[in-house]
Write a structure and sequence with these properties.
4-stranded antiparallel beta sheet, elongated, about 65% strand, about 0% helix
């Protein structure tokens, strides 16, 4: 089994910053892509950004220049640094990862999701 556990959400004023973390645990062989998604009330889940094991990043246009994704491969952890937050960034933020894991003597690959963490930007 593989688990993703997020932390770091909360309430912040417009213009403020937050840092989210997501740690993967379990019988992990490797993780190629780790990313962050968000879902606001009444809206579909959308990609915020992702990062490969080699460090290549991809961001949604709405967060470019404000959010930064990084990862620590040794710790199987991905981070989301969010600066200049806006009320429209309010959402539940989910971590996702494409994980190759051990099952017996072989490996399999699957996508996993965290439980989500609430980010609220409000004065």
């Amino acid at each position: 089994q593989v688990q993703l556990v997020e932390s770091g959400g909360g309430l912040v004023q417009p213009g403020g910053s937050l840092r989210l973390s997501c740690a993967a645990s379990g019988r992990i062989f490797s993780i190629y892509v780790m990313g962050w998604y968000r879902q606001a009330p009444g809206k579909e889940r959308e990609l915020v950004g992702d990062i490969t094991s080699g460090g290549s990043t991809n961001y949604a246009d709405s967060v470019k220049g404000r959010f930064t994704i990084s990862r620590d491969n040794a710790k199987n952890t991905v981070y989301l640094q969010m600066n200049s937050l806006k009320p429209e960034d309010t959402a539940v933020y989910y971590c996702a990862a494409n994980v190759k894991y051990y099952t017996g003597s072989v490996t399999r690959t699957n996508d996993y999701w965290g439980q989500g963490t609430q980010v609220t930007v409000s004065s």
